[in-house]
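Before relying on records like the one below, remember that each one covers exactly one chain. Contacts with other chains, cofactors or solvent are not represented anywhere in the record.
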Amino acid sequence: MIARIWKGAVRRSDGDAYSRYLNETGLAEYAATEGNAGVWMLRRDVGDNTEFLMFTLWDSLDAVKRFAGDDHETAVFYPEDERFLVERELVATHYDVDTHAGPDMG
């Protein structure tokens, strides 16, 4: 299993609107991609900004590539991201999931 992590930030006043936008775009696309095992959108207010951290789990690196393309470390952006984002990571970080404890994620 592979964990994919990406982080960006918007103005605090745009936090709720960006959350809705991500639900309509990124989260919908993550969830619809074969091999996606879960999507978590984390957020926190920091100063004048709201940070978003996308944490997704995938069955394999091939599943990640179905979502992100062959250059799977490059972050995936959507048309309105430019309007919202004041900070963004241009790459996503990937980890092999070594251990999982807790209830099944089904």
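The chain has a mean pLDDT of 94.
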